[in-house]
Amino acid sequence: MVHVSATPVLALRGVSKRFGAVQALTDVELEVHAGEVVALVGDNGAGKSTLVKTIAGVHPIDEGVIEWEGKPVSITKPHDAQGLGVATVYQDLALCDNLDVVGNLYLGRELLHRGVIDEVTMEKNARELLSTLSIRIPSVRIPIASLSGGQRQVVAIARALIGDPKVVILDEPTAALGVEQTAQVLDLVERLRERDLGVILISHNMADVKAVADTVAVLRLGKNNGSFPVKDTSHEEIIAAITGATDNAVTRRAGRRTAEAAK
Amino acid sequence: MSDTSKTVKSDSSETAKVDKAEGVIEEQETVAPADDPTAAPVTVVDPRLLVREEGFKGYVTEFKRKVKGGELGSLPVFVGLIVIWTIFQLQNDRFLSADNLSNISYYMSATGMLAIGLVFVLLLGEIDLSVGSVSGLSSTLFAVFAVNNGMDPWLSLVLAVLTGIAIGAMQGWFFARIGVPAFVVTLAGFLGWNGLMLWLLGDSGTINIPSESGPIHLLGQGSFFMDQAIIGAYLLAGLGVVLTLIGNFGEQRRRRAAGVPFRPTSEILLRVGALAVASFVAAAVLNNASGVSNALVIFLAALVIVDFVLRRTTYGRKVFAVGGGIEAARRAGINVPMIRITVFAISGGFAAVGGMFFAGQTASATLSAGGGNTLMLAIAAAVIGGTSLFGGRGTVWSALLGMLVIQSIQTGLDLLNMNTSIQYMITGGVLLGAVVIDSVSRKSQKAAGRG
Ligand SMILES: Nc1ncnc2c1ncn2[C@@H]1O[C@H](COP(=O)(O)OP(=O)(O)OP(=O)(O)O)[C@@H](O)[C@H]1O
Ligand SMILES: [Mg+2]
Question: Which fold has domain B75-222+293-433?
Fold first, then answer.
């Protein structure tokens, strides 16, 4: 299932991030290939969102290297990441309450028509995009403030798909979604993989992870705690890595298996 | 603005009836244009979405819902204007005379310029307390350049305005880069720039500026559009109406072609009709006095340009975005400090332009320029007009509407020979009233899920 290309689109090498006295990330390694869905899991506070934000340029890294298509790049502001082709759906969504759905979808990359914002085309595309996600939003012209939590989440996800990203990062995209919408998002993730995009999916829901991910990367207390191919790793093994209840032999075994799988 | 169409609708119900049949068809199309395949999947309309019913009743219910939801828009302004005009007219029957209304239209443009700049700052959810002092300083700088140093008046004007922009940018820099609260930076500016102005004026106190020609003549009370030609006012009104009409129908055509909801013809005609009535009545009244002052024309032109910038350009969108959510704006790749600095620079620039208008009013630079309640009036105008103090919500037209209210009060009080003490108290009260309305409507907007 994984079409592992030689060089990953995105790779983190020994990335560390501190917030004052908190060492949020220590020497984290992560690789995402085109057409691969990497699930990033870990307990609350493990550093998943922080990792996402370092990739997205919200919090620049302190140490380590971020490689894009094999070459080291410097990502110091959100603009850098967008320029590379990283689209991010943040856990805290980060939408502008006063702007309408269309305004939020296109924020920062408005379509222009003779130098003027092209509301008509933007609205048309927005409606089409939202309808492919089969999401019910009363109108694309109402302010974000008047949407439900799940609707906002969908808008945030749709926002990531506008533009032509190469890597899509979804930080707990299904946390606030209903049954149908969750299924839609999982379908979407699969469609992204078919389109040969790299996807980083953060989720606490093991069923979702097992359903769509190719690889599971576990973070624990800001450090890597194993990376497993989904299809031959059991639920329990992942849980054990997340909670740290693994005894060393098992971790080593899992590590060996990943190494073999990679060969 | 939308309220105008509603109020006018009752008296122009004939037009409405004529267009009704047409409107019905179009609104159906709006939901699912049958001939447009691209729009076909969009037929899923949430059944809970309240769609406006047909005709007049639809407008009334929608209007009621909006008021309940705290989307007051320009409603308080129109109510306020009617109340104010009635009260002053009852006190003094010269109030609604053409001459007095013409006075209002001339004097409101100076403070109005300050209010335009403030709209930008308020959209960020910040405040600029220095605009009054900057306007005073700019008029003094102009006088020093043009009169004391004999420089070309237009060059002096450009220099004065550039100084205003630089002052604004500097204050913005302290706010955006150093992180000093805007309120404190501009409070320092309020005092500091006023001090600089007093120092420049020195012991002479007042510098008289010759007003036979140049910018001061242009901005003076005796300078009229097209030299008082009767046709001038109607030309302006007609231009406004025709451009609005073309713009609206152009938008309708593009939207229809793209298969997205568009404004029905009946609504466009109503809106434009309301605008036409208002602008031609205003033109007739001003012609009845002495014509449209050039100061007012410049003010209106500035409003049109700024409205365009705010609503149609990416810069304007960024301003709204920063006002609506700094973190979201930042993550969308918007350079937040740059927006903040430029917004304060714009505010400083408009303050300087307003200062030139003040200089035009008195043909002098005086110690009192930009002092007193100038700042309060400018803030009150922007807020009364419907621009929220909390950021992210508002239009630049609030500078016009708010100034109408404010200048009506000022002129009315002058007519009644009220002394400054009373004027200050009333200005304070009006500002308080405006921010109370803003805060209350924000609260009910929150309750209605639109906060
Ligand atoms: N802006 C910040 N300033 C200071 N500390 C932070 C900041 N953001 C995150 N942290 C710290 O970094 C650690 C990791 O947080 P992070 O949000 O990445 O966790 P997470 O894995 O996403 O958890 P969750 O599953 O609850 O979303 C936490 O200890 C948190 O307190
Ligand atoms: Mg998180």
Answer: ABC transporter involved in vitamin B12 uptake, BtuC (1.10.3470)
8 Å CB contact of B49 and A95: no
User: Is residue B202 within 8 Å of residue B367, measured between CB atoms?
Assistant: no
Q: Which of A53, A116, A127 is most worth mutating to test chain B (most B CB atoms within 10 A of its CB)? A: A127
> Would you give the distance in Å from CA B125 to the centre of its chain?
16
C-alpha distances out from residue A161 to A155, A185, B67, B108, Å: 10, 12, 36, 48
Note the pLDDT of residue B42: 41
Two tokens at B378? 């400018």
Cβ count within 10 A of residue B210: 12
Q: How much of chain B, in percent, has pLDDT values that exceed 90? A: 50
pTM, 2 dp: 0.84
CA of A106 to the centre of ligand 2 (A): 24
> Crossing angle for the helix pair B265-289 and B13-31, nearest 10 degrees?
140
Taking the CA of residue A215 and the nearest CA in chain B, the distance in Å comes to 27
Q: Residue A236, SS3? A: helix
Q: Are B139 and B365 in contact (CB under 8 A)?
A: yes
User: For residue A235, how many other CB atoms are within 10 A of its CB?
Assistant: 11
Say how many Å lie between the CA of residue A27 and the centre of ligand 1.
Answer: 16
Q: Phi then psi for B443, rounded to 5 degrees?
A: -60, -50
Average pLDDT estimate for A135-144: 82
Strand runs labelled E in B325-384:
364-365
**How many alpha carbons fall within 13 Å on the CB side of residue B436?**
6
- Shortest-distance ligand to the CA of residue A18: 1
Tokens matching residue A205 = 């829901």
| Phi, psi angle pair for B371, to nearest 5° | -95, -155
* Model confidence pLDDT, tens digit, residues B228-238: 788 888 999 99
Q: Determine, for residues A94 and B321 on separate chains, whether the beta-carbon distance falls below 8 Å.
A: no
Nearest ligand, CA B327? 1
In this predicted complex, what is the ipTM?
Answer: 0.82
Pick from A53, A98, A133, A146 the residue to mutate for testing the B interface (most B CBs within 10 Å). Answer: A98
- Check: CB of residue B135 under 8 Å from CB of residue B358: yes
Please name the member of B317, B325, B445 whose beta carbon is closest to the beta carbon of A95: B325
Q: List the single range of A232-236, B300-304, B425-429 with lowest mean pLDDT.
A: A232-236
By C-alpha distance, which of B447, B434, B444 is closest to B406?
Answer: B434
3-state secondary structure of A171: strand
d(CA B448, CA B70): 8
For ligand 1, atom 8, which residue shows the shortest CA distance?
A50
Please report where in the chains the tokens 């006190």 appear, as a residue: B91
- Domain residue extents for chain B: 12-48, 75-222+293-433
Cα–Cα dist B416/B427, whole Å: 15
Q: Tell me B224's DSSP state.
A: B
Q: From A26, A49, A89, give the residue whose CB has the most ligand 1 atoms within 8 Å, as the site to mutate.
A: A49
Count residue pairs from A and B with Cβ separation < 8 A: 110
